[in-house]
Amino acid sequence: MTAEPRAILSMNAFSGEAGDDPLLARRLANMGAAAVLFYDKPVEMVSGQGAWMTDRSGATYLDFYNNVPSLGHCHGAVVEAVRDQIGRLNINSRYMVEIVDRYMEALKATLPSDLSNVVLSCTGSEANDLALRLAEVWTGRRGFVVTQTAYHGNTAATTEISPSAYKKGGGSPRIRTVPAPDPAVYGEDLAGGFAKAVAEAAADLEASGHGFAGMIWDSIFSSDGVHADPQGFLKAAEGAVHAAGGLLIADEVQPGFGRTGVMWGFERHGLAPDIVTTGKPMGNGFPMAGTMTRPEILSRFVEEFGYFNTFGANPVAAAAGLAVVETLRSEGLIARCAAAGATLKAELEALAARDPRIAAVRGAGLFLGVSLGREDAPDGALVRAVLAGLGRRRVLIGAAGRYGETLKLRPPLILSDAEIDHFVQALADTLAETP
Ligand SMILES: Cc1ncc(COP(=O)(O)O)c(C=O)c1O
User: Fold this and answer.
1) Which of 67, 87, 208, 271 could anchor a disulfide with 410, C-beta 3.0 to 4.6 Å?
2) Angle 333-354/315-330 helices, nearest 10 degrees?
């Protein structure tokens, strides 16, 4: 059992020697200390289809971890769209190419109408980096509030707002953290308690001289351990952000594009964010990201800085993104995700009723967290053992939470009932063999 906070990249990470695996030796030589691989015995994958990946030996793995290919690995619509556009033209956004505008219009049709300006980029980190700069220029202040185990990216600025990325030392002076919205911390009045913590953190930034520019959250609180309910509880904290004069940035990199059973995570809470950022599943594997905001916020920023992104808004990304938005609609994937998520959650709750080591099953749609241990004694060691046991059964999942105490499940939205049963049986078998 561990009560030590864990850096997010250390969870389920390989940390040994290459041994007699030649590809592992090459990877360690090529990427050096920055090589981050999953599992004690890292796996070499060669292909993927739907909810499954195949390794070098031909063995197949059920993928309950990777939320980037959220329509399923190698979805035909995306593959075809990318193939077609890259054989036609790929160029930067200083030329007009119609598919780019078609994509932005399709994306905007899913968002609140006031967020009518779109800046496309390539990674969630870039999207959030720009969001921070927009909020700083708009408010004239530099301080941000984030949750205690948040992760928002890898640039200098987004690392500052990602407490879970720090392995040593304590973060940036212009950042204040609040505990994630967990009833174990805030008690029965989750909405009020979280909003009060946000208001106090914002006031502290004001008092410190940094000023309060805004708050950024991922509304499913993915790296914080998955906190989704009750729906609407974030509304009070949104009020606290605005009352303190800050902007609310909804980081939809994790919950966006249907993952929680609605198109956007902030929608579940009835929020009206000032800035929305997206990434990961946006291109179903094609790297693309976006920062959407009101025209006046972007105009104010552009008065002070030039902004150009060579690969953002490229036509191939637009083709991939358009295929994603159209497929979500044509295959009814958001409703399917809500239904599959409800089935999976019910089966996990049934398992929890039989196994007292499961402290809680949380989440929405197909973004679920299963905490192990007790509420007052999170069991990160058990999570690591379960991850390894599922890995041996060729079922891939992740970990989250301040102490790495939560199993993080994010299967593709096309998940079938048979795949749900396969997963739950594998988890039950793994728990049964784990002391
Ligand atoms: C909530 C959230 N925001 C932003 C990012 C950064 O996205 P990227 O890795 O594409 O830069 C991540 C990545 O894990 C994330 O989980």
Assistant:
1) 67
2) 70
Beta carbon of 123 within 6 Å of any ligand 1 atom: yes
Token code pair at residue 149? 């185990």
CATH architecture of the domain with residue range 8-71+332-433: Alpha-Beta Complex (3.90)
pLDDT category at 277 given cuts 50, 70, 90 is very high
pLDDT (tens digit per residue) in 106-130: 999 999 999 999 999 999 999 999 9
pLDDT digits (tens, 9 = 90+) for 91-104: 999 999 999 999 99
Burial of 68 (0-12, 13-18, 19+ CB in 10 A): middle
CATH architecture of 76-330: 3-Layer(aba) Sandwich (3.40)
Q: Is 159 touching ligand 1 by the criterion CB < 6 Å? A: no
**CA-proximal residue: ligand 1, atom 4 (nearest):** 152
Q: Is the CB of 219 under 6 A from ligand 1?
A: no
Centre a 10 Å sphere on the Cβ of residue 161 and count the other Cβ atoms it contains. 29
Mutation pick for ligand 1 pocket among 68, 224, 254, 286 (CB with most ligand atoms within 8 Å): 254
Domain boundaries, given as residue ranges, for the chain: 8-71+332-433, 76-330
Return the SS3 of 21.
coil
